[in-house]
């Protein structure tokens, strides 16, 4: 269980670095800070995200789940705010795009690692 969580944090950090390399509007100092950002995101996803989901459930249902990208962007912006100058996103629109790309990359990386590990 712990090994899976640590692997998830590492893969999330790789996705954050990839997004930072892909877009000039997303900046992160280095991989160590990406690991910290991924750790903070994992904590936010456990603690804060369920609360946000409860409050935004009607709009999430109305948009057929597309509002979840906004919720993911909110958690990403919270992580960015907590990291200070070491993790910068130039606006909420970029946070939505970054959250989308990070989610896709995480999905691909987890499938790739699952195939290699098993």
Automatic annotation (TrEMBL):
InterPro entries in the cross-refs: Phage_holin_4_2
UniProt superkingdom: Bacteria
Alphabetical UniProt keywords: Membrane, Transmembrane, Transmembrane helix
TM region(s), chain numbering: 30-48, 55-79, 91-109
Record protein name field: Phage holin family protein
């Amino acid at each position: 269980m712990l090994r899976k969580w640590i692997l998830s944090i590492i893969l999330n950090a790789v996705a954050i670095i990839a997004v930072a390399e892909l877009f000039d509007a997303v900046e992160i100092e280095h991989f160590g800070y990406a690991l910290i950002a991924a750790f903070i995101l994992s904590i936010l996803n456990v603690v804060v995200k369920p609360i946000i989901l409860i409050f935004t459930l009607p709009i999430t249902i109305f948009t057929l789940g597309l509002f979840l990208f906004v919720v993911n962007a909110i958690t990403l912006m919270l992580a960015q705010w907590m990291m200070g100058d070491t993790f910068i996103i130039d606006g909420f629109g970029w946070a939505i795009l970054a959250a989308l790309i990070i989610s896709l990359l995480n999905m691909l990386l987890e499938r790739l690692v699952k195939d290699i590990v098993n």
